[in-house]
Amino acid sequence: MAPKKVLLKVIILGDSGVGKTSLMNRYVNQKFSNQYKATIGADFLTKEIQVDERLVTMQIWDTAGQERFQSLGVAFYRGADSCVLVFDVNVAKTFENLDSWREEFLLQAGPRDPEAFPFVVLGNKVDLDARIVSQKRALSWCQSKNNIPFFETSAKDNINIEQAFEVIARNALAQERVEDIYLPDTVDLSDQKDKQSAQNCAAC
Amino acid sequence: MALARPGRTPDRSESRAAMDDEYDVIVLGTGMKDTLLSGLMSVAGKKVLHMDRNSYYGGESASLNLNQMFEKYGNGEKPPAELGSSRDYNIDLIPKFMMASGKLVRMLLYSKTTHYLEFKQIDGSFVYNKGKVHKVPVTETEALASGLMGLWEKRRFRNFLIYVQEYDAANASTHKGRDLSRLSSADLIKDFGLQQETVDFIGHAIALNHNDEYLTKPAAELVKRCQLYSLSLAQYGKSPYIYPLYGLGELPQAFSRLSAVHGGVYMLNKKVDKIEYDESGRVCGVTSEGETAKCKMVIGDPSYFLADGKVKQVGQVIRMVCIMSHPVPNTNNSDSCQIIIPQSQVGRQNDIYITCLGASNSVAPAGKYIVIVSSTVETAEPVKELSPALKLLGKPDKIFALLNNVYVPANDFAKDGCFITSSFDASSHFESSVNDVLAVYEQIMSTLPPEERKLIDLDHLPAQE
Ligand SMILES: Nc1nc2c(ncn2[C@@H]2O[C@H](COP(=O)(O)OP(=O)(O)O)[C@@H](O)[C@H]2O)c(=O)[nH]1
Ligand SMILES: [Mg+2]
């Protein structure tokens, strides 16, 4: 039997400037640039990975900079299968804000089982020498929130990023909802019939 | 949306830095039209700052949850428990559907915002005739079985439809000797010997005109509208309409994201205190909370220009939002549908529209329906005007009445640099809204140096990659 294909929507949250866009670019495009301006947004990137028997397409959504002035709309959060919370280990405030990012996610996305929802926390920019938030402090927060997995990362030096995203995919897969809700049959707009092929006029 | 944001305090210094900057464009309000313009400007490489006084996207065209609905229109009432969870509701403040082959779909494809949205087709389209609700036939079998017209009339109607279907402006042999740029709609219809009721059916249920002004106008437009209807119907089959999951409020969010992805800066919950003008009366900035962001032009919805006298009121639209525990009677239990009540059927000048949506559109909890009745206001008692429609609904669980003023710009954009979108009209779909966006877009382009102008030709979209 061919392995089942799965699409996971992963969103990356955290204060502006912590390296969300950089992490996503490093993971998907194997690139890092010091010049990313925190003000410029990105869209979403997709990456296919193999997790055990399964082919998984990760669709990773950037905030597009709309987090900067608390202006993310509810649409951004809809249908997320996993949420990556990022802080900068060199800036205390970005760690302290994780609580409200997590709350905001739960409020807006409204997952059916908030306690079991698969979050992952990334403490980014560990390559810098100005560390303020200790591993211990970060781990203890993660433990207090139902043992959220924690990784120390650097988008710049490519530290721990593959590992983190594999856990993100695994945990999201493990949570895969048995869809008991009515799944609507949506239409594909890019498949427009033109006038010629649509000649079966309605009431003619 | 409009959820109180959790504790994270916005960084004042960052906001000051963003306000202390100079932008090509500042956009005020995140309605569907304004966000689309914002997206187009950002994509064109313009530096955009986008503000909204509300803490949610969508402005006048937002979709609200139940708590927000009661907060805004509930006269102090609290949402009763039996209506279910607030977050399961996405109630459109402006009820409209999208024509499956209409300009909004083209715009979504053009701007590649379809990635952010999912659509479903609307299950059925109905029309009110002599006190009864009839399905607008979509197949030949349905047309033959329909009680809407007699046998002979059906033949004449069919002849008309064949003419419309074959008509091609560029091919004179399909015109059959008629010049539709001169011939009025009324005269074209007369040529086919159709009865008054069929005329109403064509003009209102197919061409989707919301009053009778079209009759005296050139028939070319009527034919175009009929063609749009049948092409849209041919896309997915049940009705010519599609609708985004989670409500129309998804559209402005998708366009905003487009703008943000291209560098647009977003500030919700941002009080707009004053639009600043230089000595010559040209816009030069926008002031909020003591800080002024500089700009070369402003785009916005009319509500931001009321104080400056740059808009004028041209009418009112009444919209009654009903939450129901049953679908609209006599619609074959459709989960989603539209009923058109042509003006002549109820002695009015403007049609009344009923839209019904439910859980399958992700706008209400299971078993609940959002039914919105709307029309252009004609008298001093707007709610009473809608009573012929309300009678068709059975008993709703809750009714909200929303009375909206309709504003249009009354300024000289070439002089003041303010590009103002019009309020949403009472029409049942987005064709006129996109026309408004395109018109404002063209106004903006006309003020730019020629090398910066980029025109959008929705009728000749480049092939998709
Ligand atoms: N030294 C270092 N800088 C980083 C790292 N990740 C991101 N940055 C820089 O931090 C700034 C903000 O990054 P960005 O990805 O735009 O953050 P975002 O606002 O969270 O998306 C940029 O200048 C990045 O180059 C990292 O791991 N190490
Ligand atoms: Mg970013």
TrEMBL record, chain A:
GO terms for cellular component: late endosome; lysosome; phagocytic vesicle. The keyword Transmembrane does not apply. The keyword Transport does not apply. It holds the Pfam family Ras. One of its GO terms (molecular function) is GTPase activity. GO terms for biological process: phagosome-lysosome fusion. SUPFAM superfamilies: P-loop containing nucleoside triphosphate hydrolases. Keywords: GTP-binding, Lipoprotein, Nucleotide-binding, Prenylation. Belongs to the small GTPase superfamily. Rab family. NCBIfam families: small_GTP. This is Uncharacterized protein.
UniProtKB/TrEMBL annotation, chain B:
Pfam families: GDI (PF00996). GO terms for molecular function: Rab GDP-dissociation inhibitor activity. Transmembrane segments: none annotated. GO terms for cellular component: cytoplasm. InterPro entries: FAD/NAD-bd_sf (IPR036188), GDP_dissociation_inhibitor (IPR018203), RabGDI (IPR000806). GO terms for biological process: protein transport; small GTPase-mediated signal transduction; vesicle-mediated transport. PANTHER family: RAB GDP DISSOCIATION INHIBITOR, RAB GDP-DISSOCIATION INHIBITOR. Belongs to the Rab GDI family. This is Rab GDP dissociation inhibitor. It comes from Diacronema lutheri (Unicellular marine alga).
